[in-house]
Amino acid sequence: MPISASKLSSSAENPVNCHAHSWLKHYSQSRAVSRGLEKQGFSSVSADNLLSKAHIKSLAGTLSCSSREIISLIRDHPFLIHMDLNLLERKINLLLSYGLSVNFIRENLRIVYQTSEKVIEDRLKLLQDSGLLHSQHLETDLVAHLLESNSSGFSKSLQYRYDQRDALEGCPDQLSYLQVRLGCSEEKARSLLCSYPLIRRASNVKLKTLLDFLLIEADRSPEFIIKHRKLLAFSVSRLRQRWSVMQKAGLESEGAIVFVWCMPQKQFEKQYQEYLEVLNSSSSAQS
């Protein structure tokens, strides 16, 4: 949507609007440069026509690379031509101060253009204070995603990361978590992770929810879970519904329980129709 002149003029009175105006100006300049380079063909434009040698040298120093590499970076990030060097340097130093590497910055230069200095600092501080930054629960490439996201996207992604970390209940990874929850050796835990279905990388939250159900609600032993690991492929809602039916049907043997949990849905509905009707009527009465 076009921004009216009155809105732009009022931006000077408000620091937030002023930042938005500044960002819009940089964005417009970058788009203009990009269109110009595309129109002329970047290979036909020499570095001297784009930037002074001093500017290129300053950029090279800031990004710890050669002048030749800077020209290559400009091909992908034309905003480097017009972006204020002091602002660029401040943002890069800010990223470095939180332990992010120069290589990370060069590979994710969008951050220094798309995200304000204040937002970068606020988000990095939040990630550091929460213990997510530089932890096994947050891959480096996801740091870039979080720093580039809009406010809503950042909040959702961050909450997802919190949930995944908290699901492991203090353990650094799923291997350690399985050893703790199942009281098994590292060898057995690794065997679980390297076989179906966990080899498909179930989320931490799903893994915890499944183990909570099987160990607590269904009162199954760790040995039962290790032996019948294929049950971890199903949803908790499926397992819970069938467990309720089996309890009403009086099924107790291990073989029968596993068989019912694994049988096709149509077969299950046909064979246990009367119990399902009782469960459904009970649920309707409670609601």
UniProtKB/TrEMBL annotation:
UniProt-listed GO biological process terms: termination of mitochondrial transcription
Keywords, ordered alphabetically: Transit peptide
Family from the record: Belongs to the mTERF family.
Protein name: Transcription termination factor ixodes scapularis transcription termination factor
Gene Ontology MF: a single term: nucleic acid binding
InterPro entries xrefs: MTERF, MTERF_sf
Originating organism: Elysia marginata
Gene3D superfamilies, A to Z: Transcription termination factor 3, mitochondrial
A GO-annotated cellular component: mitochondrial matrix
